[in-house]
């Protein structure tokens, strides 16, 4: 009997995701001269620009944490969100020809893109922490378990968001034009270059609705022992992450057949 007929559904799914990941990596980095170095160059350029601005102001941004490390704790998580947002909108259209294969569905395309961005996010975060430490820019590490929990929840949040956006991007192609209008304000409202404790408390109830702000605050709390993330709320973010994942799965389940059939 042909060995392919003996494969389980899990093995088929694993092979499909692996093939999509390889395809996404080649598409994402293969056409650029810088190639895979762009994984580190993109967050590095953000960090250098922000660090230069605050160095010009002549002060350390957060006591006990070098400015470059502080910025890394905000930029790396936000870039993961930003890339998932943009790529999920185009996930169906970019992979439409592959849906002729019975084993492959839009869910696989979104999952592969989110997993790839998550791997890039973790790699760039760890690599830049090591590089900065090698140059003498370091801070006392705090809580590895908190980082694991936050990032697993964050992965679920972005997967749910990606599933909902892949449906929105197919149903409403013009939605891609509004993506920058949504992401830019979030860049300034998600704690990428500030700490919530540095903002007057009367604004906290409004900013605290933003789940990305809690991701950044909790990430910095897990990374740096001297960071006091008293305003971060892990239960609230867990609720947002599970709610977004459930919402994304529900929207996708109700529309996936139409996504495959649409041309």
From TrEMBL:
<feature type="transmembrane region" description="Helical">
    <location>
        <begin position="110"/>
        <end position="138"/>
    </location>
</feature>
<keyword id="KW-0972">Capsule biogenesis/degradation</keyword>
<keyword id="KW-0472">Membrane</keyword>
<keyword id="KW-0625">Polysaccharide transport</keyword>
<dbReference type="GO" id="GO:0043190">
    <property type="term" value="C:ATP-binding cassette (ABC) transporter complex"/>
</dbReference>
<dbReference type="InterPro" id="IPR000412">
    <property type="entry name" value="ABC_2_transport"/>
</dbReference>
<feature type="domain" description="ABC transmembrane type-2">
    <location>
        <begin position="34"/>
        <end position="255"/>
    </location>
</feature>
<dbReference type="GO" id="GO:0140359">
    <property type="term" value="F:ABC-type transporter activity"/>
</dbReference>
<feature type="transmembrane region" description="Helical">
    <location>
        <begin position="144"/>
        <end position="166"/>
    </location>
</feature>
<dbReference type="GO" id="GO:0015920">
    <property type="term" value="P:lipopolysaccharide transport"/>
</dbReference>
<dbReference type="Pfam" id="PF01061">
    <property type="entry name" value="ABC2_membrane"/>
</dbReference>
<feature type="transmembrane region" description="Helical">
    <location>
        <begin position="234"/>
        <end position="252"/>
    </location>
</feature>
<protein>
    <recommendedName>
        <fullName>Transport permease protein</fullName>
    </recommendedName>
</protein>
<dbReference type="InterPro" id="IPR013525">
    <property type="entry name" value="ABC2_TM"/>
</dbReference>
<feature type="transmembrane region" description="Helical">
    <location>
        <begin position="35"/>
        <end position="57"/>
    </location>
</feature>
<keyword id="KW-1133">Transmembrane helix</keyword>
<dbReference type="GO" id="GO:0015774">
    <property type="term" value="P:polysaccharide transport"/>
</dbReference>
<keyword id="KW-1003">Cell membrane</keyword>
<dbReference type="InterPro" id="IPR047817">
    <property type="entry name" value="ABC2_TM_bact-type"/>
</dbReference>
<keyword id="KW-0813">Transport</keyword>
<keyword id="KW-0812">Transmembrane</keyword>
<feature type="transmembrane region" description="Helical">
    <location>
        <begin position="69"/>
        <end position="90"/>
    </location>
</feature>
<keyword id="KW-0762">Sugar transport</keyword>
<comment type="similarity">
    <text>Belongs to the ABC-2 integral membrane protein family.</text>
</comment>
